[in-house]
Structure formats: structure tokens, C-alpha cells
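Re: the pair you flagged

First of the two:
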Amino acid sequence: MNWKRESIRIVVIVVVFLACYFLPPAWLEFGGPVAEALRLVRWYARQNVLLVLVPAFLIAGAITSFVSKTSVMKYLGAGANKLLAYGVAGISGAVMAVCSCMVLPLFAGIYRMGAGIGPATAFLYSGPAINVLAIILTARVLGPRLGLARAIGAVAFSVIIGLCMHWIHGRGKRDIAHAPAMLPQEMPTRPLWKNAVFFAAMVSILVFANWARSGDVRAVFLCCPGGLETLSVEGSVVERSDKSLVIAAGDEEEVEIPADRLRAIEPVEKNAVYELLYDVRWWIVAAVTIALVAMIFKWFKPGEIGEWTFNSWSYARMILPLLLIGVLVSGLLFGQGGKEGLIPSRYVEMLLGDRPDMFLDTTGLSGSFVESFVRFAWTFWSNFFAAVAGSLMYFATLTEVPIVQGLMGSGMGEGPALSLLLAGPAVSLPSVLVIRSVMGTRKTLTYVLLVVIMATLTGMLFGAMIG
């Protein structure tokens, strides 16, 4: 390894991160798509890099360094028992509350360790799509019917997408059924329980460091002056006057809602256990971190620690620049927090409605010879557009729920809502760039197309069943 070149890369990444983290708010006051792109990058640097991505990179590096390749091929390889492989991939998603970008270093780790393309992509989809918190929040905010449909659809998707990826791309040299037999037997350097405790400690730090406090109130408001789309934000009231309502929506984020756009303020029901865990989260993180450091120095050799550091840095070096580009483009196109990007929200609203009336009126096609065709194809089109739009947008963990809630409040049907919920969290423009660097253009395109097509068809079926 060229240490001089790597040192330069480290310095560049640190400088860019600090520039994004300390981006002056005054630079964002001029508004517009560019400001929204910078605002999204600033938010991402503050909320996700240190507490989310850094632990994820360390976990991915540990997977590469300490998990036996023979074990990976045994449980997730092409020659593994299919029921076991896809079961492991699906269960891993159910217990992890991650976004489409956070799961990338973990996916890259197991894929490069020799996991079959089918189970690896099943894990890639299941990580952000099947986590229990997302399903529960969907059922609570959007209704039990949509929550149940999302749970069933996501579990089925992870298996079907994995099987399709294996059938299409799993017959190459990389996914040979006899690969596990060719691998030399590896002597374990430490008992399995030690590795299990070590990984559990890192995952615990990741979970509790990002444990969010539930809000006191939920404010429902219009996205923009004169708009129809409603959004919601959950947090604590900081200030309220005749002109505006200011809500603290996170540790560092305040949202100011003009009074003329405010539609409702609803109390949020508290959960005592959840709030207790939030109050003691840093004590838990500190205790587990101390235990983790003790494990590292007692159970691991210096050479192993060096290999772990190098592998973790390799993932960070590969993923962080692509994420920066993807988040910038996503913010530029779609904005964030109800603010406009290059694509106005009224167009999204127009293309996701239950009926094509607004689309026909806006485009001037009402009464024309194509109106009957538009009405005939509208169910497919609205679900397809929701799936495509969701696959381009970036959703931080669980943020898709309030966004869909706002879209549904402005007329979005439950079918397109399900399409977006199934496609959006699992795929995003930033994640596509990274996935391509891991498994190539053809496999990435296949994966994205499978997600979009299945989300579209599922949304159409769900809409027909409840219609």
C-alpha cells in the first residue's frame, strides 16, 4: 500500500467532511435547488457520517477481516442451502434499522467475502426494507393495512429479487456451486462466541448511538405557499407565535413553519421503555465501547487489528466520495424537508394522484383523443412513477414514512404509496453509484430494474385489492 497516497486521500476526505459539517448556515439562506443540495449534504455530514457510516465501515472491515470465508460460503454462498441462505439474509434485515446507504459497506463486505449474488442482494434489499422499526412506524402512521402490506411485500421481495439475481447472474465463475469444496479449511483463531460478542458490541454501539428521541408533537403543514401537498414533522415546540411555529425535529435541526401553512398539531403518544433507553443511550454506548476496546486488545493480535483498519479504510475510501456526489444530486433534483429542488413538488403530486384529472388538466390533454388511454394506463403509470421516483430519492432511515404520509395527504393513492415504500428505502441514487462499484453495471441495472418492476406490480395489485 502506498502510504503517501493514502495519507493524501485521508486528508482530502477529512477536509471535505469538515467543510460539509461546518458549512455556514448563511450560505444556505439564498434558497433554491443549490442551497437545498448543500443543506442536505450538511445534514448528512452532521447526522450520518460519524455515528452511522463510521461504525458501519468498521463492521464491514471486521466482516472482511475476521469472518471466515468458508463460513460465508457455507451460509450465504451459491452452494449453500437456499432456505438457510435466504433466511439468514432476510432475518439480518429484520433486525437492522438502516437506510439504503448505510447497508452498503455491510453488503460490500459479505459480497467480497464470497457470498452468492442471490443471498448478497437479498441482504442488500432486506437491510433497509424489512427493519422492524420501519414496519411498525408505517402501520402506526399510515395505517395497519399499509404496514402489513409493506411487511409482506418486503419479505417476499428480498427472496424473489435474490432468486432472480442468482438465476440471471449467478452462473458465472464467481458463484460456482462447488466453490465451498475448493476452499481450504481455515483453522479458527478464536472461538465463535468471541466473534459473536465482538460483532454484537459493534452493532449495539451503532444502534444506541443513533437512538432517536420521540417527539412531543407532530405538526402537519403545507409544503409550500399555495401548495396542496402536506408534510409532517415530529419534535418539540421551541417557539410559537401568530407568525410561525418552530419545532426542534432533531438534535441539531429546527423547522420553522409559517402560520398560514400550518394545518394541525397532534400530540405524540410516548413509550416509557423507548424514552428510558433514549435517556441512558450514551451510558450504554460508553460501557459497550469500553468493553469493545478490552476485547480488541485481549482477543486480537496486532496484525489482525492492522488488517481490520486497512479493510475499514478501503470501504470508506470507496464509498464516501460516491455518497457525496449522490447526495448532492439528490438534493439538487428533489430538495428536502418540503423545500423545492429542480423538480417542483407539484409535478410529483400531479403524477401520483389516485385519478389522472390533475395530470390531464395540467398537460391540456383533457378532452383529447388520448384521454381514454391515459385513464386506462393511469394505475400502471402512477405506480411505476412512484417506484422510479422512490428509487432516485435518498431516504434516511424511517424518513420515508412522513414523506409518504404527506404525499397521501395530498391525494396520493395507497397503491403508489406502497410502490414507493417498497422501492424507495432499498434503492437510491447515492446507493446505485456505490452498488455499481461493487458488483458492476450489468448486475446493478438488473437489481434496480427488479426492484422497480416488482414495486410497480405490487402497488397495482394492492390498489386493486383495496379498491
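Second of the two:
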Amino acid sequence: MMKLQILGTGCPKCKQLAQMTETAAQELGIEYELIKVTDINEIVGFGVMSTPALVVDGVVKLAGKVPPIAEIKKLLA
């Protein structure tokens, strides 16, 4: 099972990235667990300075933007 984490404080872009990531994972047929990380210290612990960010299995894949679903799919594949 893939562990997907959305790093962000709950802003609209963070929520958008969470929804788009779920959609991308579902369309790819990936078994996943989606976790929203809102604790600022935990976010900084990943080395992320701008949110939203996407972490796949412990690796930061993107930060500071909400890319198109096609790009998210590439990051998950």
C-alpha cells in the first residue's frame, strides 16, 4: 500500500491537492492511504518550506504548487 501525505495547514490549495491526489490514485487503481499533515513542525521536518506538498512513501515529490492531475499521476506511477 502506498502512503500518500499532503503537507499543509488546511488552506484551499492544500485541500485541492488532497482531492486531486486521491482522484489520481483512484484512476491509477493504486492502493493507498492518504494522510493530511497539518502540524507545522512535522511539515518543516520534511524540509518543506512552502505548502502544499505531496509526500509519496516518505519522499517529498512536490512542494509549493498544485499541478494538473496528469502530473500527479506521473509522480505516483
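The chain has one domain: 2-76.

-B.
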